[in-house]
Amino acid sequence: MPVLTTTAAPTTELYYQDLGEGAPVVLIHGWPLSHRMWESQINALLDAGHRVIAYDRRGFGSSGQPAGGYDYDTFASDLNDLMTTLDLRGATLAGFSMGGGEVARYIGRYGQERVARAMLLGAVPPFLLQTPDNPDGAPKSLFDGMLAGVRKDRVAFLADFFPNFYNADGGSVHPDVIPFSKALAWPASPIGTQQCIVAFGTTDFREDLKRITVPTLVVHGDADRIVPFEISGKKSHAMIAGSRLEVLTGAPHGFAATHAQELSRLMVDFLKA
């Protein structure tokens, strides 16, 4: 099993897949899933002739479950460890949901020397939290409620969370996708699951986005109930000069599954441009 040991404390092991040849694409998964959420996109990118690296964030999937380090500076350090260990150059960083925060913070801290392109897919930047200078953000009580729910009964919280993740009441998702998602989320670190809520709910990526100058694709669903387009993808597109915005009509947050072929086509087309 390919793993690397992180340099940021507390150190842990990161599991990754490294498949194919060609220009590298690094896939960074969302909360509370693992790299396995990318199955359709991995197939499409490999078919298009790309090298695909998909890893599990610390605390999730087959990576280690340390007692701490669930903040974006540490996540960016972990991503940098992956980039340097594999000596990736000319890479595309593609982050879904909270994974978009890793893309932004990595570039903010480590620059673009190894990065050719970026993708923010249903991503949390630029800043989700409501503050005086971000009045249309989500109130802190929303994230406090999520944290309390996970601490009280993580399994019950996930049972309520995933139907909204996929807008299941609209019939847009295969019924087995929700059990599959639960199966990915259940083995995750309870501490990591909790602390990631704090990370994606309170981290300000606005200064990081100002440092992105590589070609960037922003994809978002206009029916996203988890990370609403108006406070995330729309703003990121406005902040990143020359970025390409693709809004998926009727798509929920979990569009990597519900709109898998459409997302894969957008990703492959962007890499060709």
UniProtKB/TrEMBL annotation:
GO terms for molecular function: catalytic activity. It holds the Pfam family Abhydrolase_1. Residues 24-253 form the AB hydrolase-1 domain. PANTHER family: HYDROLASE, ALPHA/BETA FOLD FAMILY PROTEIN (PTHR43433), NON-HEME CHLOROPEROXIDASE-RELATED (PTHR43433:SF4). Belongs to the AB hydrolase superfamily. Bacterial non-heme haloperoxidase / perhydrolase family. This is Arylesterase.
